[in-house]
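Annotated sample (chain length 266).
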Amino acid sequence: MGPIVLLCASLLLLFEARGTSAVTPVSVQTGHDLLLHVTEAVDLRKSDLLTWRFNNSKNIARYSDAVTIFTSYLGRAEYFAHNHSLLLRNVQQNDSGDYRAEVSGEDHKAVAEYKVTVQDPVSPVKLAVKHCSPDSSNLTVTCSTLDSLISSTFTCVNQTCSCERGEQSEFTTSAASLHVYLENGSVICNHSNQVSWKKDVKRIEDLCGKSAEFKHLHGNKDVTAIVVSTIILLVTIVAVILYLLYRRRRGKCHQCKPTSGSDPNN
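Output written by the structure step:
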């Protein structure tokens, strides 16, 4: 029993040394402000320090009797002594990482831990129809960002959409996702990440109507071409027939014409 008790005691001491806070994921849009709160009760004794750190190596702010903002964060970090929160202004991509608030003194205790992801807002998207059945129950659309860096094709059958790449109604990259679905007679493409979203909504009847109209116009052109070709062929045949009849009649008339100098009474 001795080794087991010793192991449990060691794990308990390690747990107490690290504190009871859990890592909280946070996403924030580039250029926005980031406010981080402590998640554990804080009771600072006279000799204790509370320090906010970035990636467990870079100090941001420290508090004991007074607040200290470290040089690289001067002008864009603010520490609130009444609740020990930290504010970072105008965050950028390189501010993504781990943030930890720790009380140090006789003991060490984490009172807040965050995993921060800074993301740019997503770009607008556009929908385009590739195929539409006559009853509009089956349609294939392409959803793409305006810069065409992200594009995917989705097929929607009986109110269910699926991506041609195999994902169910969604195409996901490391930073964002395209999601296509049907709702209230419309097809919707949603482009989103953890901090923003954009969508393009189009009525199915408009998408399929335009597609049908195009096919109708294209079909009319084909019909017109066939009709014109047929008329030309018929006119040509009639002209040939009339010409042949004319030649035949003219030949008969030539045979019936009397020769010169002959006596009509003989």
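Annotation: Helices lie at 2-18, 204-256.
Annotation: The two ends are 156 Å apart (CA to CA).
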